[in-house]
Design brief:
Shape: elongated
CATH architecture of the largest domain: Sandwich
CATH topology of the largest domain: Jelly Rolls
Mean pLDDT: 87
Largest sheet: 8 strands, antiparallel
Structural class: mainly beta
CATH superfamily of the largest domain: Galactose-binding domain-like
Number of helices: 0
Number of strands: 45
Helix content: under 10%
Number of domains: 5
Distance between the termini: 76 Å
Radius of gyration: 46 Å
CATH class of the largest domain: Mainly Beta
C-alpha cells in the first residue's frame, strides 16, 4: 500500500544474511549453518538471496516493537529452485511478550499470517506473498497473541520435503495502519489528483480445536495518469493439525499509455504434498498461453491441436495406443508411419514401429516389433565419399567444353603450350572458366620455355629446322612450350560451372632444308569434390541361378527383379565384354574367364562367338 510505513530494519540478504538466524532467539548467523547458502544474482533484491535446502526455518534476528492496535503487512518473495516438484512455504512472524520471551500459544508455533504451507510451483518464476496481522487473540494467524509486544519475520521452507530448495530474497514487515482502517472489512477510496485507488479486503475464519478454516479476499483497482490496474486474490485454507489444503485464485488486468496490455487469471490448489494449477495469460503483441500443472492431466474426449511440443516424456500405456499416419498398426502394409503399442504374440502389451511405402510393387520399409525384431527392406543406402575425375584434352581445331560434375569443389589444371620452331613459337593453350555465360577466370600457357622437352612431353616439345644450306651437321631448334599448373581452384560457389579449352598447335618448319614441327599443346583437368554414393547390402544367397547363351551378335542379360544386384558369370569366351547398367565396360582377356560385378540395371554384352555361360545373381536394393 502507498501509505505503508516501513518498520526499522533491512529485511533482505544484502549483508550476507548477518541479520538472520536459524532460531527465534536470534543468537546465530543463518548462513553459518548447513542447509542455508547465499546466492548472488541481478534479479535478487539487494543482489543476494538465501537458498534453503530441506525443511528449515529462519528468523529475523532483531525483535521489532509492535502495537497490537495497529495493522502490519508481512511480505516476501520466494522462488522454487528445486530440480523438480513443488516446494512449500510458511511465512509470518514469531511473537514475543514484553520480556522478550517467545510466545507459542495456538494457533501455530508462530503466526503464519502470509502463507500456511503454501505450494510454490517449479516454474522458474518469483512469487510474491503478503498478508496482514493486527489485534490480539488466539483465533487466527492474522492476530498477534494477546500479550505480544515484539515480532520478528520468520519462514519455514520446504516443509516436510527433504531435498527441495527454495530462494527467499526478502521477508519484510510494514506498518499499514494509515492505509487500512482497523476492521475485518476495509473499504477505501483515495483520489489525490494523480491516482485513484479503490480497495476491498475481507477475511472470514472459523476454528474448533485444532481445526481451522479461512477465507481471505483482496480486491484492488488503481488508476494513475498513465496506467490502469485491477487485481483480485481469493484464498481458501483449511487446516487440521499438520494437514493443510488451500485454493488460491488470482486475476490481474493492466493497461498503460504506451500500449501495453496484459491479463492473467490463475487458480492454484494444494492438499498436503500434492498441488495443481491452471494459469491463463494474454499479453498484447506477445501472445497468449495456458499453463496447466499437475501430476496427471486427464482429458476426456478427442483433443485437436495445430501443434504439440513435448519437452520431457510421452508414455503410451494402452495396448493399442500409438501415433498413426496412413498406417493403423504395425501390421498394416499401407503407405505411412505407425509408432506405438502393439499386441505381442501372447496377447500382452508389446511395441511396434513401421514406416514404409510401395514403389512399383516393391516395398521399402523399416519395421520392428517385440516379436519380429528389426527388418529393413529395400532401402537406399548412401556413402559419403571424395569424388575425382580426370579429363585429358589434345584435339586441335576445336574448343572443348567440359561441364563440371555436380558436387565439384575444386579443379586442378595442367596446361601445356605447343612447342615452337626457330622462326615460329607454338600457339598458346587457353582455358576459360565460366559460370553459365559469365567468364570467371582465364588461364593461358604462353611465353615458351627453355630446353627442348616440355613438362607434358610428348606434348609441347620443341621442333627444329636444318641449318641453312641443308647441312646435316647442325640443327636449328625452336623453344619448347610453357607449362602452367593451377592447383585446387575453388569452384564450389559457382552454380553452373564449365570450362572451355583451346589446344595450341605447334610451330611450322624452320628455315633449313627440312625439320620437324613443334608438338601441339595439351590440357589435363582433374575435378575433385564430395558426394553421396549409392550403396546397398547384398543378399547372402543368390535369388537366381541359371545359364544363357551369349550370341555373337550381342544382347542383354536375363531381365530380373530387382534389376540391381551382384552377378557372378563363368565360362566367358575370350574377348567378350560386359557393359553394366551404369555404362561401365569389362572385357575378358583369357580362356573361359569368370567375372564378378555389380550392375544397376540389366547388363548388356558382346561376344566374339556364341557361348553358353553360367551365372549367379545376388539381389541388391537401389
Amino acid at each position: 500500500m502507498d501509505d505503508a510505513k516501513a518498520v526499522n530494519g533491512v529485511f533482505d540478504f544484502s549483508d550476507d544474511g548477518a541479520r538472520w538466524s536459524t532460531s527465534a532467539s536470534g543468537t546465530d548467523v543463518i548462513t553459518a549453518t548447513t542447509g542455508y547458502a547465499l546466492a548472488s544474482g541481478d534479479d535478487f533484491k539487494g543482489g543476494k538471496a538465501l537458498e534453503i535446502t530441506d525443511s528449515r526455518a529462519g528468523f529475523y534476528g532483531t525483535k521489532i516493537p509492535v502495537s497490537r492496535d495497529r495493522i502490519y503487512r508481512v511480505k516476501a518473495r520466494v522462488k522454487n529452485n528445486s530440480f523438480s516438484g513443488v516446494t512449500r512455504i510458511f511465512l509470518g512472524v514469531a511473537t514475543f511478550d514484553g520480556n522478550g520471551d517467545l510466545e507459542t500459544a495456538l494457533p501455530g508455533s508462530h503466526r503464519y499470517c502470509t502463507a500456511i504451507n503454501t505450494a510454490v510451483p517449479n516454474d522458474g518464476e518469483w512469487h510474491e506473498f503478503e498478508g496482514v496481522i493486527t489485534g490480539g487473540g488466539n483465533s487466527t494467524h492474522n492476530e498477534f497473541r494477546p500479550t505480544t509486544a515484539f515480532a520478528a519475520p520468520m519462514f519455514i521452507a520446504n516443509y516436510a520435503l527433504p531435498g527441495q530448495k527454495t530462494y527467499i530474497d526478502y521477508l519484510s514487515i510494514e506498518d499499514i495502519t494509515e492505509a487500512k482502517a482497523e476492521a475485518d472489512r476495509v473499504e477505501q477510496v483515495a483520489v489525490d489528483g494523480d491516482t485513484a485507488l479503490a480497495g476491498d479486503i475481507s477475511s472470514l475464519t472459523t476454528r474448533m480445536g485444532t481445526a481451522e478454516a479461512d477465507i481471505a479476499a483482496e480486491e484492488t483497482a488503481r488508476v494513475t495518469q498513465d496506467t490502469a490496474l485491477a487485481n483480485s486474490i481469493t484464498t481458501l485454507s483449511a487446516d487440521l493439525d499438520d494437514t493443510n489444503a488451500t485454493v488460491t485464485q488470482q486475476a490481474t488486468a493492466i493497461t498503460d499509455l504506451e500500449g501495453y496490455a496484459a491479463a492473467r487469471y490463475g487458480i492454484e490448489v494444494s492438499a498436503g504434498g500434492a498441488s495443481a494449477g491452471v494459469s491463463l495469460v494474454a499479453i498484447d503483441g506477445t501472445g497468449s498461453a495456458i499453463h496447466v500443472r499437475a501430476q496427471d492431466i486427464l482429458l476426456d474426449g478427442s483433443v485437436k491441436v495445430p501443434q504439440l511440443s513435448i519437452e520431457e516424456g510421452l508414455i503410451l500405456d494402452e495396448i493399442n495406443a500409438g501415433f498413426s499416419l496412413g498406417k493403423s498398426s504395425a501390421a498394416d502394409t499401407a503407405d505411412g508411419i505407425y509408432l506405438g503399442r502393439t499386441p505381442d504374440n501372447s496377447g500382452g502389451v508389446g511395441f511396434g514401429f513401421y514406416v514404409g511405402r510401395d514403389v512399383a510393387g516393391m516395398e521399402q520399409s523399416i519395421k520392428i516389433t517385440k516379436d519380429t525384431g528389426l527388418t529393413i527392406r529395400n532401402a537406399d543406402f548412401r556413402i559419403g565419399a571424395v569424388t575425382k575425375s580426370v579429363h585429358e584434352y589434345t584435339g586441335l581445331d576445336t574448343t572443348h567444353t567440359l561441364t563440371l560434375d555436380a558436387g565439384t569443389e575444386t579443379i586442378n589444371l595442367q596446361i601445356q603450350q605447343a612447342g615452337g620452331v626457330p622462326q615460329e613459337d607454338g600457339e598458346d593453350t587457353v582455358v576459360v572458366l565460366k559460370d553459365g555465360a559469365t567468364t570467371i577466370q582465364t588461364w593461358t600457357a604462353t611465353g615458351n620455355d627453355t630446353g627442348l622437352t616440355a613438362v607434358m612431353t610428348p606434348y609441347g616439345n620443341a621442333g627444329y629446322g636444318q641449318l641453312a644450306g641443308g647441312a646435316d651437321s647442325g640443327q636449328d631448334f625452336g623453344p619448347s612450350g610453357a607449362y602452367l599448373e593451377i592447383s585446387e581452384y575453388d569452384v564450389s560457389g559457382l552454380t553452373s560451372p564449365s570450362l572451355e579449352i583451346t589446344i595450341g598447335d605447334g610451330g611450322d618448319f624452320g628455315t633449313g632444308g627440312g625439320g620437324f614441327p613443334g608438338t601441339q599443346g595439351a590440357c589435363t583437368v582433374t575435378q575433385e569434390g564430395t558426394g553421396d554414393q549409392l550403396a546397398s547390402p547384398v543378399s547372402v544367397e543368390p535369388s537366381v541361378t541359371g545359364s544363357f547363351t551369349m550370341s555373337s551378335s550381342g544382347g542383354s542379360f536375363p531381365s530380373l527383379t530387382p534389376d540391381t544386384g551382384l552377378w557372378v558369370v563363368t565360362e566367358l569366351y575370350p574377348g567378350a565384354s560386359i557393359t553394366t547398367g551404369e555404362g561401365k565396360t569389362l572385357t575378358t582377356k583369357s580362356q573361359w574367364t569368370a567375372l564378378t560385378f555389380i550392375s544397376r540395371g540389366t547388363p548388356t554384352y558382346t561376344s566374339p562367338a556364341n557361348t553358353a555361360v553360367n551365372y549367379l545373381f545376388y539381389p541388391m536394393s537401389g
